[in-house]
Amino acid sequence: MIKPDLPDNFIVAIDGPAGSGKSTLAKRLAEKIDGVMIDTGAMYRAVTAKALDLNIDPADEKAVGKIAESIAIQFNKEGQARKIMVDGADFTARIRDNDVNESVSKVAVYPAVRRRMVALQRKMGGKGRIVMEGRDIGSNVFPDARFKFFLVADEQVRARRRMLEMSQAGIEVSLKQVMENIKTRDKTDSERKDAPLVKPPGAVEIDTGHLNIDEVLARMIQFLVSGGGQAA
Questions:
Q1: Which pLDDT score is estimated for 209?
Q2: What does the alpha-carbon distance between residue 9 and residue 130 come to, in Å, rounded to a whole number?
Q3: Residue in 117, 98, 97 with CA at minimum distance from that of residue 107
Q4: For position 89, what pLDDT does the model report?
Q5: Residue 82: its pLDDT value, please?
Q6: Can you tell me whether residue 68 is helix, strand or coil?
Q7: The pTM is what?
Q8: List of long-range contacts for 53-61, beta carbons under 8 Å, 24+ apart
Q9: What are φ and ψ of residue 115, in 5° steps?
Q10: Which of its termini does the chain have fewer beta carbons within 10 Å around, N or C?
Q11: How far apart are CA 76 and CA 89, in angstroms?
């Protein structure tokens, strides 16, 4: 832990496209600084999964918006395992299923869903050492975050990472399918009207495609302990 070198309350905002390494690095960084990691992408997946489980068409914006308004989402840590609870049920594995992968990009652009998720995220980030990752954290959710990172990587690298992640979860898909999903998600995220994916002002950009996890993590920690005063 490097806890003595850092204050007790601050936000680390990590943004970037799908497969850039946000979740893995946010988890590792939170462990290093004795902080709490919030996976905001999982929150949008939770809304999508809940809608699907209730037989609601993800294309029905109004109905999905109502789900978002009342949903209860909580991140729990049990030893080294992290779980996402949705209305009291364990959705950790459910949110990674193929039907959720195929529909989350539609759900994530709905203004009502985004407003509700942003409100929940700001509440979650109200106190403590928070490492929050997503696509609009430094630009929209916490624009005044003390530390901001923007992770990037080549499409092929990101697709291979996502494919490996899904394979480890027992989901078999082709590289072509994952590539198409990545491209669709990139286009949707960058072109949506409500808080599109952009590099936040003041964010440190790191290309994770040419570095391993430990190398990226070292750069991020260096930036944190320097107080954000020098580029990683």
A1: 93
A2: 8
A3: 117
A4: 96
A5: 82
A6: helix
A7: 0.85
A8: 53/94, 58/103, 58/106, 58/107, 59/106, 61/110, 61/112
A9: -60, -45
A10: N
A11: 12
Q: Identify the helix (H) or strand (E) that includes residue 154.
A: none
Q: DSSP per residue over 16-47, as a string?
A: -STTSSHHHHHHHHHHHTT-EEEEHHHHHHHH
The helix or strand, by DSSP H or E, that contains position 9, with its residue range, turns out to be none
Structure tokens at 152: 């990037």
* CA 198 – CA 208 distance, rounded (Å): 17
Q: What is the DSSP string of 97-136?
A: SHHHHHHHHHHTT-HHHHHHHHHHHHHHTSSSEEEEEESS
> What pLDDT, on a 0 to 100 scale, did the predictor assign at position 5?
66
Q: Report the relative pairing of strands 81-86 and 89-90 from DSSP bridges.
A: antiparallel
Site of tokens 């570095």? 211
Interior angle at CA 46, CA 111 and CA 66, nearest 5: 45
CATH 3.40.50.300 applies to domain 8-220? yes
Encoding tokens for residue 187? 């286009």
Q: List the chain residues with pLDDT less than 50.
A: 1-4, 230-232
Q: Residues 132, 125: contact at Cβ < 8 Å?
A: yes
Ordered by start, the domain boundaries in the chain are 8-220
Burial (CB < 10 A; 0-12, 13-18, 19+), residue 173, is middle
What was the pLDDT predicted at 54? 98
* Helix (H) or strand (E) segment spanning residue 52: helix 40-53
47-67 b/e with 16+ CB inside 10 Å = b? bbbbbbeeebebeebeebbeb
